[in-house]
Amino acid sequence: MSSGPVPHMSPDEFREHGRRVVDWIATYWERLPTLPVLSQVSPGQVRAGLPGTPPRIGSHGSLDALMADLDEVVLPGITHWQHPGFMAYFPANASGPSVLGDLLSSGLGVQGMLWATSPACTELEQVMLDWLVDLLGLPAAFRNDGAGGGVIQDSSSGANFVALQAALHHATDGTSVTDGVSGSHIVYASSQTHSSVEKAARMAGLGSRAVRTVNVDPATLAMVPAHLAELVAADRAAGLVPAMVAATIGSTSTTAIDPVAEIGAVCRQHGVWLHIDAAFAGVAAVSPALRWINDGVADYADSYCTDAHKWLLTNFDATAFWVRDRRHLTGALSILPEYLRNQASDSGTVVDYRDWQIELGRRFRALKLWMVIGWYGADGLRAHIEGHVALAQELAGWVEADDRFEVVAPHPLSLVCLRPRWPGHEDEEADGLTMSVIESLNRSGKVFLTHTKVAGRAVIRVAIGAPATTHEHVQDVWNLIRAEVAAHS
Amino acid sequence: MSSGPVPHMSPDEFREHGRRVVDWIATYWERLPTLPVLSQVSPGQVRAGLPGTPPRIGSHGSLDALMADLDEVVLPGITHWQHPGFMAYFPANASGPSVLGDLLSSGLGVQGMLWATSPACTELEQVMLDWLVDLLGLPAAFRNDGAGGGVIQDSSSGANFVALQAALHHATDGTSVTDGVSGSHIVYASSQTHSSVEKAARMAGLGSRAVRTVNVDPATLAMVPAHLAELVAADRAAGLVPAMVAATIGSTSTTAIDPVAEIGAVCRQHGVWLHIDAAFAGVAAVSPALRWINDGVADYADSYCTDAHKWLLTNFDATAFWVRDRRHLTGALSILPEYLRNQASDSGTVVDYRDWQIELGRRFRALKLWMVIGWYGADGLRAHIEGHVALAQELAGWVEADDRFEVVAPHPLSLVCLRPRWPGHEDEEADGLTMSVIESLNRSGKVFLTHTKVAGRAVIRVAIGAPATTHEHVQDVWNLIRAEVAAHS
Fold first, then answer.
1. What is the mean pLDDT of residues B463-478?
2. Is B377 on the interface with A (CB under 8 A)?
3. Which of A393, B78, B391, B476 is the most buried (most CB within 10 A)?
4. pTM, entire model
5. Which of B:399-438 have CB within 8 Å of A?
């Protein structure tokens, strides 16, 4: 083997190129409103713009060619989630402080799988999760100084999965770890629960058939606790083992909020693990006026997750996940090969977060949360959330005042689900027109909206929450929707 | 609700603060050699240095307080994985181009769960995974233009888990998705296989008891195919279903390399999914001289993973994962709620990577791989790998030439496992001395080494691979080890 010198980027080169990239991002944020929010490329177009094989000789010394391709090949293929007209799905907030926190994490390049592999990575995370308990008014039982604790997961999909692992450990007194699942463990969710709960049941070896669909109230789309009680009782009578109920605070489709206290009472009666998926909505509790969304959590939740990376100005990934009793979580997920043994872990005085998650490796994600909370403060985060909620309430008012439209679901937060009435059209035809309106609007490049179905009918979701979205943008979107519906009528 | 203005960081403020953070990182890299590689803090020390509650008013406008805490509270709690004396575990390479690619990803702040949510995020990833097939000499069947394909996973732990999901789908003709696992599915690994394989079996509902431990050759620590064949035959005779064999290329303990071709022949005979965990070592095949490590992969591997975030200059997380036939992977992991339906996905002309992983959400991780490959080129990456391998071979030579030491396992790559002989001491006492040597060296702040056990005996792992590690540092470590052993003798 003969190897030449390795063309590393020197610290001075990093200073130079780093400034260029920082400037590129700042300029990107400035020109966002001028870009089409939904990418207009065809399948294969980005791929076709790139070389089919990797370069033998690198560009070392220059980023020119890469930055040119970024502008010319990659950028047209980007759907701009930070665009003020992005009102699809749920937001995925970025922010300056968060980007810089993540940059520090990359530069430090440490692993936090064990306390010992970088104590600050674990301890800053513990402090940030405790701060979030405080900011969101969550129960003290979730704090790291007791039997519970918090940890950053990659997403609520992952959090829902590890919650199920803990629930199965709880339901089997730990035998799931050695003996596996028996086919008799049941998970309860509603038709409005995020698909990741069913995916978790599949991945955990239970299969979709272990997932019971609890009825929802047709008006609120919230889980019906009485039906949950019936299902749980029937399963127990049949010799099955209810393992976990997944209740949702702020469903993906319409931000429906399940009645946690009543659901919790059913869980307590039957000894079932109650997991709360508050992926999008949970962070709204940073506003004291919205803290009611978590009613029941303090008394009943065994685990809880919410995404700082959706609506709390923190780049993906940063799901906050808490458990009331960490023994079931670490019981399910801990495994200790010889090469990871160390004095600190053996002493029992530290937390090793590898035992709280699917993966072994983990980045220093607490840095971005720290930067965000430190920069905005509780008041700034609250203003961010409350501003979007106020915009959504104003939009809902406009929709309700226009008899060509209806608001189709409660809108306690920043998502408004609406439907043109399409008088004179049958349901299926009307739904086709609604979908066509969405497609036309998305092709315009001014806004990106997605749909869902409520009571079987297609509806338009207007999900407000990009940091750049202001009153003016919401007004524009409402005008665009009305004009497009008029053009389709 | 009354909300004040939201104190966002403006693009101009981001330019200013971004330059400061870039400079901080460059300076950090420059002063790395002067810092103690292993953090010397006590449990709770970092936590005690931070406020117990979040600030009500943020620092907006200034990063001064946060950067001061970074230096004074966080940094002392960092174990420096980029330090030239970091030779513990395996390396976790960062590099300038990678950090900048990740920075671009944070600034763009897009989600790649569907092709439609940012086509470039999916297509650049497909191109990068195809480039890696080329760079590493992996089989064309892994390329995205056929029945197989590649994807970035968060870590090899996650890759091993989704490989098992695909294997169970394969073993059950897809019924695992609906009916769960039956308790009859078996996974085969060796005593040297990474613990994440057993953890995957637990999380998939099989339990640890479904994991068979295949014998290893005592000299090479590689899996014994004949023993695998025996175990598989015995399980089949007992009515059990062999679902997956996990073969390792470059074990975590000693970089042992399992004989993939012979293992593959057993798998083929019995229709068992062969997954290859090449987490650390796989990227070494960027050197043509080391491409032999993948012998057998082209003919037999159903899935394969290797971490660009360990030894290929790409920040965590960036595991490259390939499958020969993607149908079993997406069959196991695809789930489609209404709110994610879109024309591009319905058309079948695009790949939606949410169906290839545990989570729904995903960052634009291909950008950092693109920056790394573009900056270094194939030749630069090869020089990086070959340089470390040469250093390790030189170290092994020094150890072998010193009769107070022995090299305890093959060292084909950049890890050398060695043991002081401790003449006159019983095994247990000798192991205690070896551990004490490691602890003393780690307390010195000059080097960080970890241990493993080989044939029941404690050994010192010297894992070379930090970008900053040079010939001089390896020489220093060898001198430090010898001096410390002399002091203990």
1. 97
2. yes
3. B78
4. 0.98
5. none
